Amino acid sequence: MAIFDIQILIQTILYFCAFITGFVISIPIGVNRIEFQGLCILYSEIDWTSNNQFILHASNDLNCSFAIYLSVFACIFYGLGLGIYNGYALYKSTKDPTIGSQMWVMPFILMNSLVTLVMLVSSCMISVGFSSFCNGIKKNGNRCDLFENTKWKNLKDNSEFDSGNYFKFLTVAQIASWTSFLIWLCQVALGIMRLIRNRRQRSQNMDISDKDTKPIATVEPTE
Fold this sequence. Notes:
The chain has one domain. About 65% of the residues lie in helices and about 10% in strands. The chain has five helices and four strands. α1 packs antiparallel against α2 (about 60-95) and α4 packs antiparallel against α5. It starts with 5 loop residues before the first helix and ends in a 10-residue tail after the last helix.
């Protein structure tokens, strides 16, 4: 029966989970922008008029683009690459139990720490931006999801569009973003554990090597 390196197995699963969250973050935000005719509603402002209607002032496109591009490059591309790399190492560990100590550790700890930090920023941006948009709708005593799948009007060209499931999309993206942050945080912790484990193993190997090279007995020279 093949024996896997448990830590490599866990990290492989987490990398592919991060890969999946990349789609769950980028697709809902991207679809939401398409339905709102390219407008980003994160951090958008809403002004209510006297006739119980409101005007939406969309925010900077960067607020949505940052989360989309980060999830694509950090989660989808980078996560998939490391998932494949660790999957191969997992396969090799069935034949060589010491494969874990031969893998690069420090570069991935640094890279994963950077991804974790940036993912934290992105998650905060999505949550705060979503809350800001909903608070604008709630000013008139409405629920945030009240205007889903309703006709909205673009004042620039007087065209109408369907708002779609904006509340559900942003809720899913928000949950996925925080989940991805926790995944990358776990990866950093596992990387540090691997680094400590490898150093202890090398230290033990050096101690064994020193003991093997010590003489069994000493012989006093005869006069």
